[in-house]
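Each letter names a residue; structure tokens follow underneath. Both lines appear below:
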Amino acid sequence: MNGDKKNEQKMKTDKFNNKYRIPSARAVWHNYNGGDYFITICTAEKKHYFGRITNGEMTLNSLGLKLDELINNIRMHNPYAEIPVYQIMPNHVHLIVCIDEEYRDAACRDAACHVSMVGKNEKMQNIAEKCGLLSTAMGGLKSALTNYAHFNKIVFEWQTRFHDHIIRSQEEMNQIADYIENNPALWKSDKFYSE
């Protein structure tokens, strides 16, 4: 009987709003409030929402151009985040994200920041904030593009979550940067490739 109660208790913790949830893949020993990360964010069902690759070159459509703009302006909304290297692909985006906890409390002062907060799922944003500055920045980026798409009546959806890898050395940073920059040329051998 004691084993049944343990299983019942475990089942309760594996659910949120009476639905099973996937446990976090984040490193429990790391707070994600500082450091360098290799991030991959995919579109829902790996659909080609951002443009196409022709002759090894990525051509962005309007949604891809908006994502490019949001990435380049990330510091306006998240002053602690910098994205020195990134590549938008047809169905995903690769980024190197550098988080500097020193700028954690810097306030966003422009009107666009407050507009991008409209329509955000408050509960999800609160969860992201508890998961660290990296999740807050990536959640904000995803939310801003989703809001833009919905406002402009563009069909679009992200895959839930994103993949992160903690970058531990300059050598690793250089290897990842090379991979990101060469991603369009190697598209047909990419694990996310589809026609």
Observations:
- Residues 84 and 96 are 6 Å apart (CA to CA).
- The mean pLDDT is 79.
- The two ends are 54 Å apart (CA to CA).
